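Troubleshooting: if your tokenizer reports a length mismatch, compare against these two reference records.
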Amino acid sequence: IAFYSNNLFSFIESIIHYFPIIILICDKTYNFKHLEFISKIFGWIVIIGAVPFLLYKFSSLPLLGIPINYEAQQDSSYYFMNYFVFIDNIFGGDETLRYSSVFLEPGYLGTFSAFLLFLNRYDLHKPHNAFILIGLLLSFSLAGYVIGLCGYCLSLLERGLPARRMILLT
């Protein structure tokens, strides 16, 4: 991790920005507990937002939301409705069923979900991991699907499943 700074303020800002990553890397005794905590919070956020998202997309249920604009992009594709438990792209149209949860794009949700499932060794007996998998599936993210499948294959190899059998299963 590189800290680019022109002054003391930007150096402190860089440290605050990367502080959670530094804690996860440096704390060897509790890093699995940190991962479990992050996975639980993320899994519950995903499923709490997925239910009203599906109701909103498949019914005429009106939801209270606030329009927001992501200022880094000046084109019209980054206008969203913030429904407090999920974000929906205004110009994406109602025809799209891609769930993005609290992320700007569904690809972010898919990729992050795939990595979290890999780190949790695809243990779907835990409810939060099953919720993360639901978020990955609802994102319709090709990148998330490919990363998730590759991670699952690596997980099977790590458990000692022969490569030939693994290829037949996938």
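Reference record two:
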Amino acid sequence: MISFSKIKFCKFYFFKLLLTLFAATFSLSLQAKVIYYNFEYLKLPVAKLSIDYNEKRIVKGDISFSLETKGPLKIYRDYASEGKLKYQLDESWIYSINGFDRGQPEEKKIIYSKTKEPIIEKFIDDKGVFPIAIIPVQDIGAIDPFSVIINTIINLEKKKNCYDNFRVIDGKRRYKVAMRKVDSSLSDIDKNLVTGKISHCRLTVLNSENNSKKYRIWPFNKQDIFIDLWFSHEKKYLPIRIRAKTPIGSIIGRAVTEDL
């Protein structure tokens, strides 16, 4: 039986990270207009992510998404947010989020470009934290967390490999991400999700600003800041399963759609 002390121990940053890392995948994937991820901890529901996009759009079309806590976690951390990824004609793109975390507002609007540094137009943090200072030369070409998955899907489509390195700025943090292939296996319990080839890749978050041994991103420990993803080749490289190992156990997310 899960205790509320354990729920409290598992800080909510993980779900915000999932929101930013996975929502944009669907501008490249299935034809359905709405797709959901259900997340569980010890078989208990903890969060739900939904993605709504225009199926008539080409790659990198606009999408909207929403995230909310579920089950016991909602009692401790009542969180809900909506956001959008919008591409511009000049090949820049806008990442925006609006939500509430335990009654406190949270809002972001950041403009990204391959040839310029990001512009943080609006940043309201639920804890009152100020945005990081953009460094003009160093941050040119840095991307939002969404684009990590978009570029990984493109790599799988074109190169059949998820290997890549990324520089990411999310408004609050500046970090590096490494994507590497692990294997092509899928757990027995999830084999009924999809048939065909699966690419199992690992997204590792690397800290580029703080080398202190005390550095950590909740709920990960200092050594294992990573998320595993299983991409289905048959489903246009949709990540059908997500797993993050935390100090209190694994949190599992599964894609849920009529087309699976």
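Descriptive notes for reference record two:
- Residues 145-159 form the longest helix (15 residues).
- The helical segments are 4-9, 13-22, 71-76, 145-159.
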